[in-house]
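Data card: per-record layout.
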Amino acid sequence: MINFDEGIEFDPGFTIHLSLISRDIESFYYNLSMYAFAQKKQQFKAYSSKLLKLVERNIGFYAACIIWADIAINHPEKLILNNICFGGEYNEEENVAEVQFVRNYLQQYAKDLKYYTGQSWVVPESYNTILNDYEEFLKLNEGFVKVSKAGDLKLPASVKPVNDESTYLELVENVVETGNFKPMLETYSKVK
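The structure for this 192-residue chain is written out next.
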């Protein structure tokens, strides 16, 4: 059970369920390049749902981070514990690179899906909203290099304060336990 007696963890346990998405996707495409076209079609078709789940997991992570910060802001005097970014150098380009990679890849995924499988797919607007909000969140907080307490956190203006904290804390606990970020994608609209 999450409590804030000692302070608020910078990461409640989200990142153990992630890998570097740019590396994973680039590895897939590198391997795909080894095949002839007919085999590429089969490979892409076989892995397309896994690629999408990988992207959705990262977008769910972004939503989870904003919701976690939204909860934390309700406790402005609490220390942020284990902030690995604190005191570091802020580089905006590096800070938002992974988010921009995901945004660009969603467009590429739609094109590749059409090219290799003939299926159409449109990026859900909710994904774009989360990506835009998360990029703004990273920029507002300058990579969290100056965040030492919850009151230092800044949210995008479009994000509403969390009112029913216990519901969101249960959701966070579930994500930490299961590694399933999909409920965060579905819940994010409630903080908009």
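Known properties of this structure: The helical segments are 21-32, 37-73, 92-117, 125-140, 165-178, 182-187. Residues 37-73 form the longest helix (37 residues).

See the next section for split statistics.
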